[in-house]
Amino acid sequence: xxxxxxxxxxxxxxxxxxxxxxxxxxxxxxxxxxxxxxxxxxxxxxxxxxxxxxxxxxxxxxxxxxxxxxxxxxxxxxxxxxxxxxxxxxxxxxxxxxxxxxxxxxxxxxxxxxxxxxxxxxxxxxxxxxxxxxxxxxxxxxxxxxxxxxxxxxxxxxxxxxxxxxxxxxxxxxxxxxxxxxxxxxxxxxxxxxxx
Length: 196
Prior knowledge:
CATH topology of the largest domain: Jelly Rolls
Strand content: over 45%
Oligomer: single chain
Number of helices: 2
Structural class: mainly beta
Helix content: 10-25%
Largest sheet: 12 strands, mixed
Distance between the termini: 23 Å
Mean pLDDT: 89
CATH class of the largest domain: Mainly Beta
Radius of gyration: 17 Å
């Protein structure tokens, strides 16, 4: 299974604190471009600051680069995150094809599962975290509908839907994140992890 680091993921942006759809940052040679769709009209002079924040996220200069980039983005009304694919069209059971390495970032993270289904669908999911990408433990998470109700129990999906799980920011073993699927009957899952 491949390990995806934050530095190799897609940087995304949206208005802050209003939220909304995430837009991929347009990048050429690891530099954010002015053609990026910010999701909001930036005030005069804010575009260079937004580009600077994106470039800090893309080209880290310190161990706290994600936090610094996020604070700069917030100052101009934007929010940043790194988005990585853990699995595409996964059928059957087992761990996701990829693992997200969050490096020094232990703050907010989400896992999004988009499912398509066949007859009598059901699949059980377990979010897992690791400090060393070797020993894995159940990771505490919450459904986005109840974002402060964290649990380490498995969850089941039985329909074609989009499910967002929020990783407990208090988790101490979550440098690496993956998902394990079990008891899968006719469910196909595409899974992304985001941090930022």
